Each structure stands twice: as C-alpha cells, then as structure tokens.
C-alpha cells in the first residue's frame, strides 16, 4: 500500500528537561525525531513530512541533512494545526497516496513491524492505531489526593501512535472538524466523521518521552536493538635520543624518547586504532596520514578524540577500553593511574571503564632489548543495530 507519513515534532517539548526541545534531544546519541524518520523512510513512506516549530526549521533541516525525501514544514499553535500543515504538504505533493500514518516524534522506537501491522489493519478499516490495555486500577481523586471513587477500566485502552488512516477518509474528516474544538488525537477526528477505526495491539516500546526519566527508560528499551562491537589496535615506536616519552597522554621523564611522526604515543595510537576498528573505520593512518605535515609533532590526544567522535557520530557509545603497554623501561606502574585518568577524560568515560596495564617480554625480542616499546588495546563500543 502506498503510504505517506507525518511526524509531528511541533511542540516546545520542554517538560522532558535538558534545555533542548525533546524532539531534538539525543537518545543513545541520535536525536529523538530522527529515530522515527529513519524507520518510516526505510519502510517506504513517501512523502514523509516532518512538522517542526516555526522557529526551529533550521534545526529540523540540519537533522534531515542526510535523509532523502523528507519535507519539512512549519507547525501551528496546536498539535492539530501542525497535523493540518502536514496534510496540506501531502495533498500538494504529486504522490499517489492511499494511506497516511501520523506519528509523534516523541515516540522514537517505531519498528517496521508496527508500520506493517497498521497498514494491514486498514484492509477493512478507515483508521487503525496501536493501543495498550490498562493494567493498573484507575482511581478518581481530588487535587489534594483524597480518593472519591474507582473507575471501571473495562473497555478502556491507552492510545499510541502512529495512527494510520485511509487518505480520502482522513482528508474528508479534517475538512469538517469544527474549528473551535481540539481533538486529543487524530483518530478522534475520523471517529467523529463516522469512520471505522480499529485498535491493533500496542507496544510498550512505543512509549512517549514526556518527562526526563522517560529518556532513561527509552535508552534501556532501545539498547535491546543495539550491537556490541569490539576493535583491537597495536602500535610500536622505536626509542631514540630524548628526555622522556608520551604514553596514554601522560609524559614520563626518561633517558630516551619515542621516535615518530607525531608525539609517538603508542598507547594512544593503539587505542585510536581499536576504536576505529570497532566501527569499521579503517586505521589511524587513513584519518591522519603520516605524509601530511600538519600532524608532525601533533599531540596524539586529537587522534583519540577524533575516533571517539566518530563512534558518537554513529549514535554509538564507548563501553570500555583496555590498553596494555609492553616494555622493560620506563617503569609504567607509577603512571598508570594518571594514564587512566587522562584516557577517561579524553573519552568522557568513568574511570572504572578505562584500564591501563603494563607488562614486559622477559628480556625477549625488541622490547626486551629496549629498542622500542609496543602497545595493544581493545575497545568495546555499542552502536545502533
Ligand atoms: Mg604510532
């Protein structure tokens, strides 16, 4: 079935805290509205309309920069005004639309299965929406908290979105809705018009982000669909003349230095490669070619921070990192805690998710002969599935 979709992100959304309107706040690193937009696009919604507050169109545009086929329109004062703007954008497009899904941007965990079930339900209905039975007993109480009744919950359901409608019925219903009234959802408009609206089983994962604590709940629900990925890195640098070495972002006074194009911090280089490896982004040389003079003598902090930014840019987060430094000298142990603290600060991680270890090779090989030192690292990241 050819369907269009409207994602309503028109509200101020400030009850959710964080200072930013909730539709743009990140959930597992990805702005809330983007979750639904991607799900709808992937399922073939054409056109797909994002209704944003009139003073936030630039934010909406930036959000959709990487998406093809999203129309952005300015919302109105009430949610219904915003939906009307979305409907007008669909009417003005050349697409042959049979059905329309209207969805709240504040419900990010929309899955392909939800969309299919709604479109299927339109086979013998004018409208369909996911709804959940009410498990809790419903009380009536005065503002002060004194109970004065228990409501019968038989036949009551909690309505979620997306709500799906036959396009012709929806247009006709909105056209005659009285201008002074505000429906609490879109299905109500079609119901009032005499349309047949059916419920399909809702999904707790379609919960709406309203309050700050909802984000924590959504993050834990979202992580069920996330991938844990690991990457490893290895690096070596040769000792040469100097008076100290950089390792894991910490300077250690020593009778030699490490030789390299940048500051030769093998610990940071191995860890950078581990992070890049975890997200399949090549190696440090791809991002910071040693032939490029701008990295001569560079502090390797920036290589690591760049890799961490790439992880976050994919909506991922770093779970933990573990570095092993391999050398006879200098002695690492006195600097281990400073190294952990430095890495934790660069990666914005709690200390207990950062490990730095040291070992020798019992006098064997190039590290045993103290010609150079080596570092290996493991990074675990979590990314959207
Ligand atoms: Mg290196």
Secondary structure layout plus pairing:
Elements: E1 3-8, E2 26-27, E3 30-31, H1 32-42, E4 48-52, H2 57-63, E5 70-74, H3 79-91, E6 99-104, H4 112-121, E7 127-133, E8 138-141, E9 147-151, E10 157-159, E11 163-166, H5 167-176, H6 186-192, E12 197-201, H7 212-222, E13 226-241, E14 244-247, E15 250-253, E16 256-259, H8 266-278, H9 284-287, H10 301-313, E17 317-326, H11 336-347, E18 354-359, H12 365-368, E19 372-384
Parallel strand pairs: 1-4, 1-6, 4-5, 7-12, 17-18
Antiparallel strand pairs: 2-3, 6-11, 7-10, 7-11, 8-9, 13-16, 13-19, 14-15, 17-19
Residues 235, 237, 260, 266, 269 line the site of magnesium ion.
Question: Any descriptors?
Answer:
eight-stranded mixed beta sheet, 385 residues, 60s Ribosomal Protein L30, Chain: A, 2 domains, five-stranded mixed beta sheet, alpha/beta, binds magnesium ion, elongated, Spore Coat Polysaccharide Biosynthesis Protein SpsA, Chain A, 19 strands
Task: Describe it.
With 385 residues, the protein is an alpha/beta fold. It has two domains: 3-210, Spore Coat Polysaccharide Biosynthesis Protein SpsA, Chain A (Alpha-Beta Complex); 227-384, 60s Ribosomal Protein L30, Chain: A. It has helices at 32-42, 57-63, 79-91, 112-121, 167-176, 186-192, 212-222, 266-278, 284-287, 301-313, 336-347, 365-368, and strands at 3-8, 26-27, 30-31, 48-52, 70-74, 99-104, 127-133, 138-141, 147-151, 157-159, 163-166, 197-201, 226-241, 244-247, 250-253, 256-259, 317-326, 354-359, 372-384. The strands form five sheets. Strands 1, 4, 5, 6, 7, 10, 11 and 12 form an eight-stranded mixed β-sheet that branches. It has a five-stranded mixed β-sheet with strand order 16-13-19-17-18. α2 (57-63) links the parallel β4 and β5 (70-74). It is elongated. It starts with a strand and ends with a strand. Magnesium ion (MG) is lined by residues 235, 237, 260, 266, 269.
